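Re: the request from the purification team.
They wanted to know what the chain is likely to look like in 3D before they choose a buffer screen. I agreed to run a prediction and write the result into the notebook, where they can find it.
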Amino acid sequence: MNRMLSRMVMATGLVFAGTLSSLALAADEGVARPDATAGEHLFVNGDMGRGVLACVTCHGEGGNSTIPMNPNLAAMSHEYIAKQLVDFQKKGDAPAVRRGHEGADSIMTAIAAGLTPEDIQNVALYLSLQKLEPATAATATREDTMERGQHIWRAGLVDRKVPACAACHSANGAGLPGEFPRLAGQHPEYLIDQLKLFRSGDRANEIMYDIADRMNDKDIAAVADYAAGLR
């Protein structure tokens, strides 16, 4: 447990340092600030000339998805969305950091391939300024697993060295901007799929691999449903 917590602290420091470094670099090189209006245009209309589909098609108006397997992106932190879009992109012959099941390309890999660094920053800023709408946010529906999901979220699974989800994603699931994503109101179907991708290593993340690898399918389903009901 101590080793895992140390990794979390190190990861937090690295992300924070990276964010500061990026801001400093942008200031030094005179890089244009992200443009939320341009981000909205790309989100709503896409750019078929570059093979970039309109994000709204899958992620809903303002990032409020109505499709359970497609995540809500509204109000997610700018830094987190930008990082995920970069992780979907391949670097030369190397596979993307975020892959689908059994190492296959994610559907987002083809979409993100056409995005420039400016596009990514613009869309990320636009989504970070949106509100998660109560009408489309997911809710917890499985009363039979509520107690187990709450226990994992708040206390983890000590016998299997699974830390409490709240330690990084906060008690109310709001996350930590720039470091850990908001999970409150996220679709449980999406959360289940991502935890299984962490567990298989297809979504590369050392911290989450260590955690998900110690969870069985029932644990994952219970905590995903509980997170969906947080606000």
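For the purification team: The chain has a mean pLDDT of 90.
Please add any questions underneath this entry.
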